[in-house]
Input
Amino acid sequence: MGWSKRGNGKSYNSLNGYGSMIGFLSGKILDYGVRNRTCKLCDKGHPPEHHDCRQNHNGSAKSMEASVGVELANRSEILREAGLRVRVLVCDEDSSTIAAVRTGSEAYIYKFADTNHLYKHFNESLIKMKPKFKKIRAVSAIPHIKKNCQVSWDAW
Output
């Protein structure tokens, strides 16, 4: 999922969000979804019936990811017409998207974490562990652990 305005981990207030479903084998975009929290013409007082209003989301910017995930994984007309079903979802460590997708799905959907987010959370966990464990307090310990794990993940 991408947003027009970047969140900082604590505050997510983007007005637009974009998500896509990418085929594992083809690497091509199969479907996409867009969420908009505002419409400039509606904000100026024009009724939605008189223009092509694109506002389609009333929740928070953070909830856009789950909303697009459900639309793409469970309600995609393109996937349905091709006779395809989503069995594995690769996404970040946020559990709200996979929970929403699983709730609306007939079959169980597996979740894989992408390596970028996995590596980021691994690094954050190492830094949190540093005060508790003497052996990783050394200046070179955390970079050494990260390097070895990155090599393993890249090989996978």
Q: What stands out?
A: The beta strands are 2-3, 16-22, 29-36, 88-91, 110-113. The two ends are 24 Å apart (CA to CA). The longest strand covers residues 29-36. The chain has a mean pLDDT of 85.
